[in-house]
From TrEMBL:
Belongs to the TMEM14 family. GO terms for biological process: regulation of heme biosynthetic process. InterPro entries: TMEM14 (IPR005349), TMEM14_sf (IPR044890). It comes from the Eukaryota. It comes from Amphibalanus amphitrite. Its main location: membrane. This is Transmembrane protein 14C. The lineage of its organism: Eukaryota, Metazoa, Ecdysozoa, Arthropoda, Crustacea. Pfam families: Tmemb_14 (PF03647).
Length: 106
């Protein structure tokens, strides 16, 4: 199976966001959450690349990010970073959720 480049990019974006949050605001929670979720998404991307039916970790991590960052966006109204991460997470929740519901491999 080919590598799931989009999922690896998503993982890198989340990890980079945590690093940026730490470097700009000194936020240790941003660093820990960004690197933790980035790592989970990278492992999930590797699992999906090996077997497209093995999407469970990716779906879980994307769902949690959607819930947390969606709530932050709703409270703050700021597109960066909460709105952007929530929007990208929504795309991946739909992507992996459709696999769960239909068995398709997109």
């Amino acid at each position: 199976m080919p590598a799931d480049i989009a999922a690896y990019c998503y993982a890198a974006l989340v990890a980079a966001g945590g690093i940026m949050g730490f470097s700009k605001a000194g936020s240790v929670p941003s660093l820990v959450a960004g690197l933790g979720f980035g790592a989970a998404l990278a492992v999930g991307a590797q699992q999906v690349s090996a077997d497209p039916a093995n999407y469970h970790l990716s779906l879980l991590a994307s769902s949690v990010l959607l819930a947390v960052m969606g709530a932050r966006f709703r409270r703050s109204g700021k597109m960066m970073p909460a709105g952007l991460v929530a929007a990208i997470s929504l795309v991946f929740v739909v992507r992996y959720g459709s696999r769960a519901l239909t068995g398709s491999q997109w």
